[in-house]
Amino acid sequence: MDRHATGMSVRRRVLGDAHVNRAEAGKSAFDAPFQNMITETAWGTVWADDTISPRERSMITLALLAATRNFDEIPMHVRACANTGTSQEDVMQAFMHAAVYAGVPCANQAVKLAKQTFSEMESEAE
Hints:
79% of the residues lie in helices and 0% in strands. With 126 residues, it is mostly helical. It has 2 domains: 49 residues, no CATH class; 74 residues, AhpD-like.
């Protein structure tokens, strides 16, 4: 199995062609090995596994991003919810779970970012 090809397919399905095309266009010789590793491991192995659904994976990812305070990734994964079947209510549940186990301040920041991103997505759809 070609993990890179699988990873690119899953990455495009979850994040969308426009996002992946921008990321690929911005790839340089310096970060190409890192981008390939992410494509093969995160997308070609973890996200490609069908043990849990893309919806569940999105919820877990968002909760972990909030818990580890990796806020830069939250808007991208909130946007991906449109492709994974993850509702706004699901996102809120993930952040509420993170609040209980990782702390209210990190979940509060995640909620703020998600709210802003959902608002942007609604404006873009009009």
